[in-house]
Amino acid sequence: MSKANLLVTFDPTHVESAKKEIEEKLSEVKEKGKLLKAEDGLAQISVKDAKKAVKALSKLKKFAITNRWIPVDKWTNAKIPDMQKCIKTLSKEISAKDKWKLDLGKHQGAVDIPQRDLIVKLTEVIENPNVDLEKPTKIVRVDIIGKTAAISILNKDEIFNAADKR
Length: 166
Prior knowledge:
Elements (H helix, E strand, L loop, with lengths): L5 E5 L4 H14 L4 E7 L2 E6 L2 H8 L8 E6 L2 E4 L2 H11 L9 E8 L7 H9 L14 E8 L2 E8 L4 E2 L5
Parallel strand pairs: 6-7
Antiparallel strand pairs: 1-3, 1-4, 2-3, 4-9, 5-8, 7-8
Helix pairs in contact: 3-4
């Protein structure tokens, strides 16, 4: 499993530019990051506190290459039972008053399961019935990367789409 706790998506035709932008932006928020892997439009990075870094990054301007900056809480195998177990454990962070949604990303030869089926299977283990696709207070983020899955429970200010800053 990866040691990355931050994923960054980017245009796959601009790997070197993306690496440079990631390094520059992390430096701007005084976050030391170690790039573990960057290929096929996805960078895996290790930082001290990914959620804090993303909150700081979201205040910056002028992102040219990178898109989504996504903290990772846990890694697991990309098999439905393993992902369900991980989500069930992490979903304890969703309180009774929280509204939530699942946000799913599939990268680099991810499992060949229809998206709708995958969403149903992954959400059925969450006991909180308050789904809100428009204004959730918590986001259950699942990124399937080949045979592994990065899973997080995020507040809406802990995930950031840099494309909105162009």
